[in-house]
């Protein structure tokens, strides 16, 4: 039986994108939480929880982008011109955020300015990722395997609301991570902050889901036609169960459970996205097979990925193992 390489590559890219959201999501979320904590010591602790790992988290963004370029060049050459502005702004946000990490630790008089750069860069990057997601969901106009739309087709109420949804998701992930990594008064404040964030997250998920189904006939047909609803219904049911579990774990003062359940919500959201657009890689009509590069190109790239990807996964697992445990005020910071 011949290996279906487009499906394999779709799984690899999907894995890379999900791991990126899972890992870089919580450290972008910490930037979003900074405005709620004015105390310098608390901000230092928050930054120190991600200082050893944040740079490695972005490896998976590179993996997803490079995989898309090599395995699905038609999708790559369509998605980029359709979203040049939000993608450029996302990179600008990541640059400001990275610069803030490096420079705020050395700054004295300008540390507040670098805090603002960290907040603004995190918010801009997260918002733009959500806008790109929204533009993908609402569909991209393609003629003869080329983008045929307007440069500002990405800008719509739906895509902007998806950007807001990603902001809330990342902030909630950040809360879960900080509950896991901190203790004492800071941990108590974060628990209090996470409760309303989870409620807003559930509302955002419900609204985006409803908006997607009502506004996109192809998605509505996928979910409700041909008896598919019975197979897909566990996704929203499990999202509600995870939200209930987060509220319960916050009440019982569990430390790891809020973060793990928020990750589960992200996975379920990602699953819902795949269900809604599969087998299209660019909705409404470009499938993974139509967008694929040649079989020899995909096979060549797959050999390298099979070698490199386990190394990346082991490296990332080791950094979290080495830097496990609580972070306390007064611990060695980012230098």
From TrEMBL:
| Gene Ontology BP terms | aerobic electron transport chain
Q: What is the lineage of its organism?
A: Bacteria, Pseudomonadati, Pseudomonadota, Betaproteobacteria, Burkholderiales
Cite a single Pfam family from the UniProt record: Cyt_bd_oxida_II
Q: Which family does it belong to?
A: Belongs to the cytochrome ubiquinol oxidase subunit 2 family.
- The protein's name: Cytochrome bd-I ubiquinol oxidase subunit 2 apoprotein
One GO cellular component term, please give it.
cytochrome complex
Q: In its keyword annotation, does this UniProt entry include Cell membrane?
A: yes
Keywords of the record, alphabetical order, are: Cell membrane, Membrane, Transmembrane, Transmembrane helix
Tell me where it resides: Cell membrane
Q: Which NCBIfam families match?
A: cydB
Q: Which PANTHER family match?
A: CYTOCHROME BD2 SUBUNIT II
- Give the residues annotated as coiled coil: none
Transmembrane stretches in the record are 6-37, 82-101, 113-138, 158-180, 192-214, 229-247, 259-279, 299-318
Q: How does it sit in the membrane?
A: Multi-pass membrane protein
Molecular function terms, GO-annotated:
electron transfer activity; oxidoreductase activity, acting on diphenols and related substances as donors, oxygen as acceptor
Tell me the domain of life: Bacteria
């Amino acid at each position: 039986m011949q290996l279906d390489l487009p499906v394999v590559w779709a799984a690899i890219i999907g894995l890379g994108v999900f791991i990126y959201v899972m890992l870089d999501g919580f450290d972008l979320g910490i930037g979003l939480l900074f405005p709620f904590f004015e105390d310098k010591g608390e901000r230092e602790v928050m930054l120190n929880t991600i200082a050893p790992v944040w740079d490695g988290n972005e490896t998976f963004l590179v993996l997803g982008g490079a995989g898309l370029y090599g395995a699905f060049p038609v999708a790559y050459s369509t998605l980029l011109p359709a979203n040049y502005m939000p993608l450029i702004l996302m990179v600008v946000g990541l640059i400001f955020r990275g610069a803030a990490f490096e420079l705020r630790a050395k700054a004295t008089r300008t540390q507040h300015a670098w805090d603002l750069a960290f907040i603004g860069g995190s918010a801009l990057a997260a918002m733009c990722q959500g806008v790109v997601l929204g533009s993908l969901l609402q569909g991209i106009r393609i003629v003869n395997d080329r983008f045929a739309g307007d440069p500002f087709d990405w800008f719509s109420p739906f895509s902007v609301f998806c950007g807001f949804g990603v902001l809330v998701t990342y902030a909630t992930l950040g809360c879960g991570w900080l509950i896991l990594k901190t203790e004492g008064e800071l941990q108590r404040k974060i628990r209090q902050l996470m409760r309303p964030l989870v409620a807003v997250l559930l509302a955002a998920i419900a609204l985006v889901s409803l908006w997607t189904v009502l506004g996109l006939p192809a998605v509505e047909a996928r979910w409700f036609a041909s008896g598919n609803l019975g197979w897909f219904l566990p996704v929203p049911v499990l999202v509600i169960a995870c939200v209930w579990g987060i509220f319960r774990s916050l009440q019982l003062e569990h430390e790891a459970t809020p973060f793990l359940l928020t990750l589960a919500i992200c996975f379920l959201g990602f699953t819902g996205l795949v269900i809604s657009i599969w087998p299209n890689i660019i909705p409404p009509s470009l499938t993974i097979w139509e967008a694929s590069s040649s079989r020899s190109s995909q096979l060549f790239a797959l050999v390298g990925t099979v070698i490199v990807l386990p190394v990346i996964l082991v490296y990332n697992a080791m950094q979290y193992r080495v830097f496990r445990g609580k972070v306390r005020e007064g611990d060695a910071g980012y230098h």
